[in-house]
Write a structure and sequence with these properties.
This protein has 521 residues and is α+β, with helices and mostly antiparallel strands. It has 15 helices and 22 strands. The strands form five sheets. Strands 1, 8, 9, 10, 11, 12, 13, 14, 17, 18, 19 and 20 form a twelve-stranded mixed sheet that branches. Helix 13 runs antiparallel to helix 14. The protein is globular, with a radius of gyration of 24 Å. The N terminus is likely disordered.
Length: 521
């Protein structure tokens, strides 16, 4: 009876009915031709140049890129079978796989890839933060990209989902990418899409092997507990990122396959320097005032590593040698506040200055369960040192806009640090100087010319040692300037029923519904 109630509760939370067992049923796994995946939904459209919605296009097996990352984040051939670069590092030549086809049957030629890239650059300001090209030319299956300067990691940049290859001709013929999804090269095609649910069908023209499922259903289940309940009840076959509170339900359970990987993610709290937090002492107090070690060990049950630096220890960029001078010390935090004139003059438990209490607004979103846990723990710790923090939960799209405008005090989010196999783009994207809007994703007001010099050097040198040292030194500047609170680094997971084969958690988090994922029943 308890199991029945649990299933009914899950269905109610998902907004589904039990009738017919097609929306929410205990025997949904019986159909070997259908895959159901509980995912975190953040994309409101399937337009790949909008926000970070291209991630959904690649994760759901709709589109593919020229290169694919292995588990060490090295770029391997995918739609491109090989590539080479000139001695000066500015001319890249890619050979497009002769077998590759779009889902409408049209061949993927170099010209089609050229048009796809040109569309991305025309529609996305973010594309220019990866590289700038002087020309792209196509000759049969040979694509040549001439860049304005050397970009040693250009193949890695093209592995970011923003550069997913789409059939631009289909758009000219009337395809609406936002509503209907782009025509890509992946094993599945879109049959319907809303932010709450995606439905996919097998790509009959798939070029890279058999497609295991006739249909794939992806309900957006943003609540971690509800995802776990849906997996337990059998309403879904697989769940993406089960939270720390539910993880133990599946670990060491023969009925489930659990895969996890050391994350490239950084959960961080950006601090806007456009308001009170332009004061470095205040930013330092906010860093020293929270117990990140306790959050990782107790709150998140050792599914996180305590934060310290911009890049996680899973990447070889000097984590141990970097110096964090603002480790947890509430007394130091109070001293720093007092140094800037913030003391409790009226005994109400909150520090004040010029008759005003220090009150900050923290924004975050719910699709990653750890974010609200962090936000509430920070709120409690800040109250202990006399700072009032109000938490506001917003949609991911709004959070992205706030990040650009800087209209926040604290902004807690989870970000992949090496989405191209190289962390330079991440560092420049979030902390590179935003002069006249040329780096719109950094709306925080932070800018540092030496940091810009180091990240530019790291992104242009062909010497790996010089690049690594520049990245380490750039991180130290962020720590010295109290630019951001680095909260922690999660492990990521995918958990499925034991009959599912081919579940694999990739550090990049780009590859979820793949041709290798199948039922063994």
């Amino acid at each position: 009876m308890k199991n029945i109630r649990r299933v009914l509760a899950t269905c109610a939370l998902l907004g589904l009915t039990v009738v017919g067992l097609t929306g929410c049923g205990m025997n949904s796994s019986a159909d070997k031709d259908i895959l159901r995946v509980g995912a975190i939904g953040f994309a409101s459209t399937l337009e790949p140049t909008e926000n970070y919605f291209s991630w959904v296009v690649v994760r759901y097996g709709i589109g593919e890129t020229l290169v694919k990352f292995d588990d060490t984040m090295k770029a391997k051939p995918w739609l491109a079978s090989k590539w080479s670069v000139s001695e000066d590092g500015k001319t890249w030549t890619f050979t497009i796989n002769d077998k590759a086809k779009f889902s409408n049957g049209r061949k993927v030629t170099a010209q089609a890839v050229k048009e796809s890239f040109e569309r991305t650059f025309a529609k996305s300001n973010r594309a220019k933060t990866f590289f700038t090209y002087d020309s792209i030319t196509a000759d049969g299956q040979i694509l040549t990209i001439q860049t304005d300067k050397a970009y040693p990691n250009l193949p890695g940049s093209l592995g970011d989902p923003l550069f997913v290859i789409v059939d631009v001709q289909s758009e000219r013929e009337g395809r609406n990418f936002s509503a209907d999804g782009p025509i890509g090269t992946g094993p599945y095609v879109v049959t319907s899409f809303t932010k709450e649910r995606a439905e996919l069908a097998a790509n009959e023209n798939y070029w890279d092997g058999d497609v295991p499922f006739k249909r794939v259903e992806v309900p957006s289940i943003n609540d971690a507990n509800t995802r776990a309940m849906a997996l337990q009840s059998g309403d879904i076959d697989m769940a993406i990122n089960i939270g720390p509170g539910e993880y133990s339900l599946f670990a060491d359970n023969k009925d489930y396959t659990v895969t996890e990987a050391s994350s490239l993610r950084d959960v961080m709290a950006r601090m806007s320097q456009k308001g009170e937090l332009k004061d470095s002492n205040l930013r330092a107090a906010l860093i020293a005032g929270i117990d990140r070690d306790s959050y990782a060990k107790n709150l998140l049950k050792d599914t996180f590593i305590a934060g310290k630096a911009p890049l996680p220890p899973s990447l070889d960029y000097g984590f141990k040698q970097l110096k964090d001078t603002n480790q947890y010390d509430p007394n130091k935090a109070k001293t720093l506040l007092a140094k800037s004139g913030w003391t409790d003059t009226n005994g109400d438990g909150l520090v004040d200055k010029n008759g005003q209490n220090l009150s900050l607004v923290l924004y975050t979103y719910t699709s990653r369960p750890e974010l609200t846990l962090y936000a509430e723990a920070m709120q409690a710790d800040y109250k202990k040192i006399g700072i009032d923090v109000q938490i506001k939960i917003v949609d991911y799209t709004m959070l992205d806009e706030l990040a650009k405008t800087g209209d926040y005090d604290l902004l807690v989010s989870s970000v992949v640090t090496a989405n191209t196999g190289d962390p330079v783009w991440f560092l420049k994207q979030y902390w590179g100087s935003n002069i006249d809007g040329d780096n719109p994703n950094n709306g925080s007001g932070f800018n540092n010319s030496r940091f810009d010099e180091l990240t530019t050097l790291a992104g242009s040198t062909l010497d790996a040692t010089i690049a690594r040292n520049a990245i380490i030194n750039a991180q130290q500047i962020l720590l010295d300037e109290n630019a951001t609170i680095f909260l922690g680094y999660p492990k990521i997971n995918m958990i499925g029923k034991s009959y599912l084969k081919g579940i694999h958690t990739s550090p990049s988090e780009y590859y979820v519904i793949t041709k290798d994922l199948k039922k063994n029943m």
